[in-house]
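Section 3.1: Structural characterization of target chains.
Under the original work plan, the team committed to producing a structural model for every single-chain target entering the pipeline before any wet-lab resources were allocated. The record below documents one such target. The sequence was received from the expression subgroup and is listed exactly as submitted; it comprises 330 residues.
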Amino acid sequence: MRGRLKCFIAMAIGQPETERWFEKVLPKAAKGLAIQFRRVDRVEHNDNIDTKILELIKESDLTIADLTFARPSVYFEAGYAQRVGPVIYTCRADHFKSRDDDVYQNFQVHFDLKMRNIIPWKSLTDAAFPAKLNKRIVHVIRPILAVRQAEEQAGLEAARFGALSEMAKYVALRETARSLLARRLHYPVPRYQRDEPVLAWYRRRETLHVVALWGLAHATPSDVRLTANLHFDIILNSEVSDLLAEKPTIRDVRCWLLMYSPNPLSDSMLRKSWLHSVPLANGGIEVTRSHIRQRNIPIREEVHVLSRVRSEGDLTRRLSAILKETGFIA
């Protein structure tokens, strides 16, 4: 696990009570948590202080904003912090009701934050406050830590995968692709050993849905063009046409071709391989074919390239996102 989480503290700096709150109370709330509290006045820098505040907020994983004494700077910092991460609000308990002698409203929470779930503290010896703040911090950082753990796991997977040979990478990715389609898997075309696709299909009303996953050991323009030709001329005109002969009620075909490679593969390379294609918002292209053999059945073909695949887990995540759209996996 990486180092401690960074927590920016927005508070009334220089006020004796809030200074003691920072020194004595906050450490109790963070007990057992790997959190580093950061204040702009305790960071050595040579910048414009406003610039440094925004920089510290952006670098932080979360922010604690104490609204005691209604400092405008705290409201500003909390508002900016909400753009980049979670903000926990605290305030001295006597700020939740207006006071007749508070002419300048320095001892109340202003209207734009009154609806927030603010944690009150009665005094510096309020025994309940540290536990409440600790509970809130734990709640807020749980998803942050989950993301960190996932990123670290992905890094480990990428390091292990990167040490494999090119062919070992290809085989590992192909087996990963196969497992994703296990429920509707059709055995690959036997004529092609190294570049055979993982092919699956299902029928929904009068539409046949087909997905072909092609792994490219070497992501070159010639590989992409070869895959384009093989996919349509052999897979669709052979395998799918046989299916259509068995199911004469099918009126159109929706096909997804998903190519993947651990090497770079550009969208421009993809478009050059499929003429008359239309770019899609999700990064692929759509190609419309007119017929399959003698039957005048339209084919809508969506082509995606997943390049620079870093591991089996990376391929699983990226393929799953597309396959969920197609209905092949739940």
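Residues 171 and 215 are 9 Å apart (CA to CA).
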